[in-house]
Design goal:
This protein is an alpha/beta fold. It contains seven helices and eleven strands. It binds S-adenosylmethionine (SAM).
């Protein structure tokens, strides 16, 4: 498992700078006519505003008991309903087909093999209504950024070092206490290949959360796909 529970400590601080995605996922949820599901829901950072804006519960799947506990407490404080499930997104099984499944904050990059990602995409395709949407975002690897950041030590929110393993297309956050959280980046064609094998179709690829076009200079993939209506 590439997510280390130690990273549940101070999660609000780790994610302080990530706010631009919330309006994007809220807007998508507003267009969804049916169940809403967040993969790797974490502490509900996105699911809580989605549930508040839509007045619908969000099914939140995550493997981390500590993140789910934070989500439960935060949802209760916000007065919204999340249906939290401790489960692996690779084994996604829903009681009702979803109108929207989404996975923010690059969480699909915690899956380190093609086979794991393919499994998630296939489970998503099987869990969506015809016409239902799947949305996610992930960073586009940039060797200038990697060269700049590799070996950088940061003190907040807890002391850690960023390390790149280029041959494994992996970036690690290594806490001083030894805990490691890893992300495996993927290329645009790998993402498109996953849609292809899962039988999903691309609706949009944006270069940011304001819906800007994806260009070769974009550094974030913001994907919206859908299950074909006839499927
Ligand atoms: C960076 S957090 C993202 C949390 C939340 N979606 C957000 O946007 O703030 C990554 C989350 O992915 C979860 N995770 C990692 N691998 C997972 C898997 N295979 N299935 C379900 N959750 C997973 C971790 O437990 C963690 O809560």
């Amino acid at each position: 498992m590439s997510w280390n529970e130690a990273f549940a400590d101070h999660y609000e601080e780790w994610s302080t700078d990530m706010t631009a995605d919330i309006a994007f996922y809220v807007e998508l949820a507003g267009h969804a006519d049916g169940p809403l599901v967040e993969l790797a829901v974490g502490n509900g950072r996105v699911a809580i505003p989605v549930a508040r804006a839509t007045g619908q519960p969000v099914v939140g799947v995550d493997t981390s008991p500590r993140m789910l506990e934070q989500a439960m407490i935060r949802a209760a404080a916000a007065g919204v309903r999340l249906e939290l499930r401790e489960a692996d997104m690779r084994d996604l099984r829903l009681d009702r087909l979803a109108a929207l499944i989404y996975c923010p904050f690059r969480a699909l990059l915690h899956l380190n093999t093609w086979a794991d990602r393919r499994r998630v995409f296939e489970r998503v395709a099987a869990s969506l209504r015809p016409g239902g949407r799947f949305a996610w975002n992930a960073f586009a690897f940039d060797h200038h950024i990697a060269a700049r950041l590799d070996g950088t030590r940061k003190l907040g929110p807890v002391p850690h070092t960023i390390r790149y393993a280029l041959g494994d297309n992996r970036v690690d956050l290594v806490r001083d206490n030894g805990a490691v959280s890893s992300l495996w980046w993927a290329t645009k064609n790998e993402w498109l290949g996953l849609l292809d094998v899962a039988g999903l179709e691309l609706e949009a690829l944006h270069g940011g959360f304001a819906g800007e076009p994806f260009t070769e200079d974009s550094r974030e993939y913001v994907f919206v796909a859908r299950r074909p209506r006839g499927a």
